[in-house]
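Re: your question from the hallway

Yes, I did run it. Sequences:
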Amino acid sequence: MTPPSGDEITTGFPVAGEPRFGTIDDVRQGLAGVDYLADEGIAGVVFLADRLAKPVLVEGPAGTGKTELAKSVAKLTGSRLIRLQCYEGLDESKALYEWNYKKQLLRIQAGSDEAWRDLEDDIFSEEFLLARPLLEAIRSTEPVVLLIDEVDRVELETEALLLEILSEYQVSIPELGTVRATRIPLVFLTSNNTRELSEALKRRCLYLHIDYPDLERERAIIETRVQGISQALADQIARIVRSIRTLELKKAPSVSETLDWARTLVVLGVESIDAEQARDTLHILLKYRSDIDRAAKELAGLTLDD
Amino acid sequence: MLDLLTGFIAELRAAGIPVSLSEHLDAAEALRHIPLEDREGLKYALGASLVKSSTHWRAYETAFEIYFSLRGPEYQIDDQGDEPNGEEPSASEQAGRGSGPGQGQGGAGGGAGMTPEELAELLYRALASSDPTIIQTVARQAVARYAGMEPGRPVGGTYYLYRTLRNLDLDGMLERLVDEARPGTGAGPTGTGGTGGGQALTTLEERLLRDELQTRVDRLKREIEDEIRRRLVADRGSEALAKSLRKPLPEDVDVMHATREELVALRKALQPLSRKLAVRLARKRRHGRKGPLDFRSTVRHSLSTGGVPVDPKFRYPRPAKPEIMVIADISGSVASFARFTLHLVHAISTQFSKVRSFVFIDGIDEVSRFFEHADDPADAVHRINTEADVIWVDGHSDYGHALGVFWERWGEEVTPRTSVLLLGDARNNYHASQSWVVKALHDRARHVYWLNPEPRAYWDSGDSIVGEYGVYCDEVIECRTLRQLERFVGELA
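Structure:
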């Protein structure tokens, strides 16, 4: 048994490794290859995140492809995606690591005649460590993309757990030493902006705000993501959705809702949308009664009672 | 390049965007990896490392356009230079002063080689197709022709923009395009707008077409703005211009003097703000407070430790939620401020046990009912503007009368649990102040606060009598920006 000393299990200071992408355009084309259409900003930030070895904090309205971005980058780089879903009450033992108490107890019972000193060294070894997503991402020898989803849901104090990982790519375990990343993973944090994240966290990240796509991009997204859709229909959908977004609604339609709507229309065999059909299927796009009423009225001069 | 970056960051800080040293280093590092000729890429790369909030993006963009604007001879303010006699700024300035800005360049602008008719035709083509290069050309031509820019003037360019747009008559152009897409003309100007073919456009199609054109017009406006800015930078240099163009962040905009565009931005900022505030308050309420010691429970639990109270138990805290009465002046001068406050207070109404709102100009009316059934505070605020009965005589603010009526009709309902918020600039048009009402409110209510959207320096000047009311309030608070408003409401709950 080796005694746990500080740098025993680290493999030197983490290196960024070979850059994953050559140019910004490579990123964009690569992402397009896995059906994620990035704009200039998104591709640029992903490129930079790789080069600077910095995490990316992605903010934006719900359903604009924040989580999808991380998934697509994982697919593009052939990495494993490790996901940590945040929620209120998340703590160290769920996010970082935990000792496997039951196994430790068994070990103590099994070796009751051993010297305590040896036993102690033994039960605080890696064998008894349960890696949670963050530690797993750091320890992994294969390339990984770490996605920390909805980071705004954890309490302000819990954010501090992330800081060490995000800036140094290491996890300190008091009994064991410091675990450093062998290869710096690409890290994405997403936030729905329900609260202000701490300065400390923001400072460590590159910031990317993903907004609703513009017309051309949305049309392209619809065409790649929805199978069997005609160009004319995709165009029409994109234009209607853009119109709806200019209205003052409680919840503007997201990209994922647009895609749902497009799929529905394809299933229904619609070739080109008229006011009737738009009105009848609006509930896929909008989730509030008042929004649906308003959109129907604005778009087609119709109320639902016609 | 690093010097430029340092200057740029100084400008960002001056505009109110917090940039830390480590972010500065990141930006410098980013420069090494981004090819400099990729201007868009550069913009996003610097943005990603420097700007950490989406509301700051606009301010960042403006600063970026100024510091990293395209430069070159073609952006000189040169239209006067085409005149054979004038080649020095002094000469052109004379021309500008002498003949009035507009006409001064009327002939000279022809150096760009286009008559107004040609330009209008080009504009029409630019809008009818969505080709960005034509739009750019139009923007350049229009600025050269109409903006009448004069070198060396310390202005921010808003006036040039206004003058260019006025001459272009974009609204008229928009109508013309929509008209042409209507029956008869067949294929619409946008390949897809004409799916209706020869038939009349349905409402839906017309709406889509309009939106499409509107987007193009907006793009053109942006181009024109950029063009003007580029010329200004070429003329006066980045730093001088940045100062005159600096835009306040949405949360720092003075609500009373906000432009229409800023108001839209404010309204957008308000929604996430109220959500965040509600989340924060709810958390504050749940955590960090312990009720008084629960003696019974402590003794009960001490049994397991042999009667030693190791683990004291506390009662579940039930912090009292305050009751709020908002009395807001909604006369012209302070209307938008009142709207924002009402919106915010009602958006977090779950944090109060009761919210009642009253609005007045010279008459007063209760508007709580509008908020009760509305899903969206914005709707309710809109209804207040149209439906509330707030005019008594002439529709000029009369605080005295409004407060008097309030006391008569609702004074009984103010209880020691109520916090009263009075909103307004207290510009009373020299009517009687009736400040005894505020005194009576103060005696009865828990707190009385006065929120004044005017800068402190203007208080008690002219017909403002905020001081007279202020002596009876717990506090009179200057509340000009969303940031100040948010802080106040957060402390209230």
